[in-house]
């Protein structure tokens, strides 16, 4: 079929069952044959199969090269003719995660940059717009080679997550699991401390670890134990670089390891905790967000991730006190409903003048929007600030009826429960 090799053999599921005659059965190839005709088989039409045993194939269309481990590298794609690279324009974690899933990982921790290959390969894709659920990057919206205009020194690479946090509703904490020999397993907590958590958090793409807990996210405990007696200094790039024992038995009298990592977003130069210049931890360093293109959708996601209520997006002139290592800014393109900033599209290579960068003020109380023409009456006292746990009660004057919630509660994320109340005039016969 023109592809250079296969990634995996598939039986049944993904492609469904065919109808019609079955031509080949009991096929045995060594892998070196030019075509299936040269492989051993029972003879054309001779088989003992049903369509439930139809096979599917997944031809290799991407590979990772030049990486320090098998979970990272520069991305090379095969278009049926030659291997080539991907331009960095709009290369974000959504795109990188599609690549990682092609290699059996769950997600990417870095949409990385790599130096161009020495053999000067052609750039085969640019402006990738993956939404995140595609099976291969070829399914993502992108610009074809004939229209590629790529101005970058580097090309696209990935670092895929071979560790994950599970059994928590928050993205930055959970039970730590590592991927070993094609299977996810847990880590035994003997000798585990903050240094080891620091390494795990960085490996997961977070800036640092906050604390260590044990057994909080213990789950059903059916996962195998992959690592024991892990000892890190805290500066290692991954857990594989730490002193450790690897194994697959269940002989751990300690609990399994939980990790709480620092969020990938923080506000600096803050007057208060809910207001400041936005910085995002991307590909191993803190980056500011460019003022150009900064909007309320982006600000909403930042405030949500920080655990605050609704957002006010603002732009600030950059001050001279900003450290050089955080000078780089990138262009954020959130839709507004993302759970965290890493779920947004972005362009890490965007030209940002750095004259203006993103600032935000997030609501740290529930805000009560009241329209002066609204005939809804507030029964409970109107307060200056509504905090989590506070509630308000509404009613309508005579001749009106209420739609929406008659009582609303200020929730822990500084948003109101229920639907805003509106009074409608009663229909008179
Ligand atoms: Ca993209
Ligand atoms: Ca934006």
UniProtKB/TrEMBL annotation:
<feature type="disulfide bond">
    <location>
        <begin position="29"/>
        <end position="39"/>
    </location>
</feature>
<keyword id="KW-0732">Signal</keyword>
<feature type="domain" description="Sushi">
    <location>
        <begin position="364"/>
        <end position="425"/>
    </location>
</feature>
<dbReference type="Pfam" id="PF00530">
    <property type="entry name" value="SRCR"/>
</dbReference>
<keyword id="KW-0812">Transmembrane</keyword>
<feature type="domain" description="SRCR">
    <location>
        <begin position="1"/>
        <end position="60"/>
    </location>
</feature>
<keyword id="KW-1133">Transmembrane helix</keyword>
<feature type="disulfide bond">
    <location>
        <begin position="188"/>
        <end position="252"/>
    </location>
</feature>
<keyword id="KW-0768">Sushi</keyword>
<keyword id="KW-1015">Disulfide bond</keyword>
<dbReference type="Pfam" id="PF00084">
    <property type="entry name" value="Sushi"/>
</dbReference>
<dbReference type="InterPro" id="IPR035976">
    <property type="entry name" value="Sushi/SCR/CCP_sf"/>
</dbReference>
<dbReference type="InterPro" id="IPR036772">
    <property type="entry name" value="SRCR-like_dom_sf"/>
</dbReference>
<dbReference type="InterPro" id="IPR001190">
    <property type="entry name" value="SRCR"/>
</dbReference>
<dbReference type="GO" id="GO:0016020">
    <property type="term" value="C:membrane"/>
</dbReference>
<feature type="disulfide bond">
    <location>
        <begin position="232"/>
        <end position="242"/>
    </location>
</feature>
<keyword id="KW-0325">Glycoprotein</keyword>
<protein>
    <submittedName>
        <fullName>Scavenger receptor cysteine-rich domain superfamily protein-like</fullName>
    </submittedName>
</protein>
<keyword id="KW-0472">Membrane</keyword>
<feature type="disulfide bond">
    <location>
        <begin position="130"/>
        <end position="140"/>
    </location>
</feature>
<feature type="disulfide bond">
    <location>
        <begin position="396"/>
        <end position="423"/>
    </location>
</feature>
<dbReference type="InterPro" id="IPR000436">
    <property type="entry name" value="Sushi_SCR_CCP_dom"/>
</dbReference>
<feature type="domain" description="SRCR">
    <location>
        <begin position="265"/>
        <end position="363"/>
    </location>
</feature>
<feature type="domain" description="SRCR">
    <location>
        <begin position="163"/>
        <end position="262"/>
    </location>
</feature>
<feature type="domain" description="SRCR">
    <location>
        <begin position="62"/>
        <end position="161"/>
    </location>
</feature>
<keyword id="KW-0677">Repeat</keyword>
<feature type="disulfide bond">
    <location>
        <begin position="334"/>
        <end position="344"/>
    </location>
</feature>
């Amino acid at each position: 079929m023109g592809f250079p090799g296969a990634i995996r053999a598939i039986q049944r599921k993904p492609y469904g069952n065919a109808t019609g005659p079955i031509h080949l059965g009991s096929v045995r190839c060594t892998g070196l044959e030019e075509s299936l005709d040269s492989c051993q088989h029972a003879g054309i039409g001779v088989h003992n199969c049903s369509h439930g045993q139809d096979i599917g194939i997944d031809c290799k269309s991407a590979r990772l090269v030049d990486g320090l481990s098998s979970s990272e590298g520069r991305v090379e794609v095969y278009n049926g003719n030659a291997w080539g690279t991907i331009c960095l324009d709009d290369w974000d974690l959504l795109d990188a995660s599609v690549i990682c899933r092609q290699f059996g990982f769950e997600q990417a921790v870095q949409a990385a940059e790599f130096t161009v290959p020495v053999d000067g390969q052609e750039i085969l894709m640019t402006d990738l717009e993956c939404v995140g659920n595609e099976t291969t990057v070829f399914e993502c919206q992108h610009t074809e080679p004939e229209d590629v205009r790529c101005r970058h020194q580097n090309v696209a690479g990935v670092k895929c997550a071979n560790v994950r946090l599970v059994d928590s509703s928050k993205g930055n904490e959970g039970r730590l699991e590592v991927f070993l020999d094609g299977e996810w397993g847990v880590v035994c907590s003997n000798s585990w401390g903050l240094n080891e958590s620091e390494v795990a958090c960085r490996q997961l793409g977070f800036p640092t670890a906050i604390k260590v807990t044990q057994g909080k996210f213990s789950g059903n405990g059916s996962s195998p134990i992959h690592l024991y007696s892990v000892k890190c200094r805290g500066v290692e790039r991954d857990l594989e670089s730490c002193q450790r024992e690897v194994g697959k038995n269940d002989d751990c009298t300690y609990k399994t390891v939980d990790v709480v990592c620092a969020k990938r977003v923080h506000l600096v130069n803050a007057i208060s905790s809910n207001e400041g210049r936005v910085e995002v931890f991307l590909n191993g360093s803190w980056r500011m967000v460019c003022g150009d293109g900064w909007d309320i959708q982006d600000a909403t996601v930042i405030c949500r991730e920080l655990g605050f209520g609704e957002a006010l997006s603002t732009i600030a002139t950059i001050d001279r006190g900003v450290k050089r290592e955080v000078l780089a800014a990138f262009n954020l393109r959130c839709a507004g409903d993302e759970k965290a900033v890493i779920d947004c599209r972005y362009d890490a290579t965007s030209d940002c003048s750095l004259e203006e960068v993103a600032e935000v003020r997030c609501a740290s109380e529930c805000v009560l929007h009241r329209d002066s023409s609204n005939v809804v009456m507030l029964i409970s006292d109107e307060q200056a600030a509504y905090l989590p746990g506070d509630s308000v009660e509404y009613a309508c004057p005579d001749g009106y009826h209420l739609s929406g919630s008659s009582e609303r509660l200020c929730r822990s994320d500084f948003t109101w429960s229920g639907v805003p109340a509106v009074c409608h005039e009663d229909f008179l016969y």
